[in-house]
Design a protein that fits this description.
4% strand; three-stranded parallel beta sheet; 2 domains; elongated; mainly alpha; 3 strands; 223 residues
């Protein structure tokens, strides 16, 4: 039995600790306009032997940063951040709606565009050279302006061929390119199967309570 909560932001992990959760999985999270979840509150949970795992988006970022301290990571996006293949936070950034919309995405994350174009190349829909050009163009955009429709339009502009653009458009309709979603589903299944465990800590740590953390704890009603 799991509770599904909104994208994580500052204070949410502390509230989960306060409310007695023993295992947490961070997937999506706020970062633009709302303070992101603190590393400090995750490390606080870890210091209490609460299991914390991350994948897909903000969860993958925090897991890549904190796995040496015992935060579990899962999925290809986490692995890419951990291994240094991805370095920029905006790889996973998306524009999304509010709770009433179900936090529906209104843009496409760069990790999904990379993944989808890789699938298209392997299927013979685009060449390796076009894949690189299209990824570079998507990467140059502000995260909220990334859409598959823009990628298809860029392909038409680069090749001068509406037929090639139509092939890619058809491929995208017929293919699941949502790597973030796939990683989240895989992670939840791994946890359900008992296959995702807390990693051995590379860096032993003693949790130090700073003034800022104490203020956050008090704001959440924790003594």
């Amino acid at each position: 039995m799991a509770d599904f909560l909104p994208p994580v932001s500052v204070g949410d992990v502390l509230r989960a600790v306060r409310d007695g959760y023993e295992n947490l999985v961070l997937i999506d999270g706020y970062f633009h306009g709302v303070p992101s979840v603190w590393h400090k509150e995750i490390m606080y949970a870890l210091s209490l032997n609460i299991g914390v795992a991350g994948c897909s988006s903000m969860g993958a970022l925090r897991a890549a940063e904190l796995w040496p301290y015992g935060m579990a990571g899962s999925g290809r996006i986490f692995e890419a951040y951990r291994d240094g293949t991805h370095e920029s936070d905006d790889e996973v950034a998306v524009l999304h709606g509010d709770g009433e919309s179900g936090y529906r995405c209104a843009s496409e994350p760069l990790v999904n565009i990379r993944h989808g174009l890789g699938l298209a190349r392997r299927a013979g829909v685009v060449s390796a050279a076009l894949e690189r050009q299209l990824v570079a163009r998507a990467r140059a955009l502000f995260y909220a302006d990334r859409h598959w429709s823009r990628v298809v339009a860029d392909l038409a502009g680069l090749t001068g061929s509406e037929d090639e653009a139509a092939r890619l458009r058809r491929f995208l309709r017929e293919t699941d390119t949502d790597l973030k979603r796939a990683d989240a589903i895989e992670t939840l299944w791994r946890i359900a199967d008992g296959d995702l465990r807390r990693p051995e800590m590379v860096e032993d740590f003693t949790f130090e309570e700073t003034h800022s953390f104490l203020v956050l704890r008090m704001a959440e009603g924790m003594n």
